[in-house]
């Protein structure tokens, strides 16, 4: 969520699709939208595959498992958590942890977590829910304080900045050389003795 983003104001010539897009964008920006979407999508394959039948001509293949009811419960819970993330942002930490735990439980219960699809989607949704934080609006700075920050302090002509008494005349912002600096103060052992190094 970006609280400093400009607010959309509808113009008279805007198409209805543009209006819907901006309203949806504003709605999804105030909640963990992608976390809810991934969690919601992760619940469908987990709940569906144990009850699905695949027909090959006259042959019917059933992927039902003894834990079919458990898979249905896990899938429905993940779908519910995804919807809750959209409409109850305050439970995002609980929903994120619950989504990750349900995804892990779906591995042995529901055909390896809906053949891995529901497992991965639920893990991503839970991680996004845990990492989402609502945005904070920018702090309002009082007008008098803002004017003081924008205008730098003006020095009186002839006044000398503190600590710059040894600067060259006419250059108040640049300090002069210190008394301890000499021409060879920055010379290292690599430059001494004709460029040869001495060990020890």
Structure description:
- It contains 7 helices and 2 strands; from the N terminus they run H-H-E-E-H-H-H-H-H.
- It is mainly alpha-helical and 200 residues long.
- A two-stranded antiparallel sheet has the order 1-2.
- The chain is elongated, with a radius of gyration of 33 Å.
- The mean pLDDT is 74.
How many beta strands in the DSSP annotation?
2
Radius of gyration: 33 Å
**How is the largest sheet built, in terms of strand order?**
1-2
Shape: elongated
Order of helices and strands: HHEEHHHHH
Poorly predicted runs of 5 or more residues:
none
Helix content: 40-55%
- What distance lies between the first and last C-alpha atoms, to the nearest angstrom? 61 Å
* Structural class determined from secondary elements: mainly alpha
Mean pLDDT reading: 74
Q: Which SSEs are present, and which pair or pack?
A:
Layout: H1 16-29, H2 33-48, E1 53-56, E2 59-62, H3 68-87, H4 92-109, H5 111-115, H6 117-131, H7 143-150
Antiparallel strand pairs: 1-2
Helix pairs in contact: 2-3, 2-4, 2-6, 3-4, 4-6
Quick summary:
Helices cover 48% and strands 4% of the residues. The protein contains 7 helices and 2 strands. Helix 3 (68-87) runs antiparallel to helix 4 (92-109).
Summary keywords:
200 residues, mainly alpha, two-stranded antiparallel sheet, elongated
């Amino acid at each position: 969520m970006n609280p400093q983003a400009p607010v959309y104001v509808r113009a008279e010539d805007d198409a209805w699709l543009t209006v819907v897009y901006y309203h949806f964008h504003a709605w999804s920006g105030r909640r963990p939208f992608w976390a809810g979407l991934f969690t919601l999508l992760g619940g469908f394959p987990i709940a569906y595959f144990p009850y699905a039948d695949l027909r090959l001509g006259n042959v019917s293949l059933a992927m039902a498992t003894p834990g079919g009811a458990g898979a249905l419960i896990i899938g429905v819970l993940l779908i519910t958590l995804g919807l809750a993330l959209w409409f109850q942002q305050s439970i995002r930490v609980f929903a994120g942890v619950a989504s990750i735990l349900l995804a892990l439980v779906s591995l042995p219960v529901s055909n390896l977590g809906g053949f891995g699809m529901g497992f991965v989607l639920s893990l991503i949704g839970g991680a996004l829910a845990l990492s989402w934080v609502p945005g904070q609006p920018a702090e309002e700075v009082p007008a008098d304080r803002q004017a003081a920050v924008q205008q730098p302090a003006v020095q009186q002509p002839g006044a000398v900045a503190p600590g710059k008494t040894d600067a060259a005349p006419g250059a108040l912002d640049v300090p002069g050389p210190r008394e301890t600096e000499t021409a060879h103060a920055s010379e290292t052992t690599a430059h001494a003795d004709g460029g040869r190094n001495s060990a020890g």
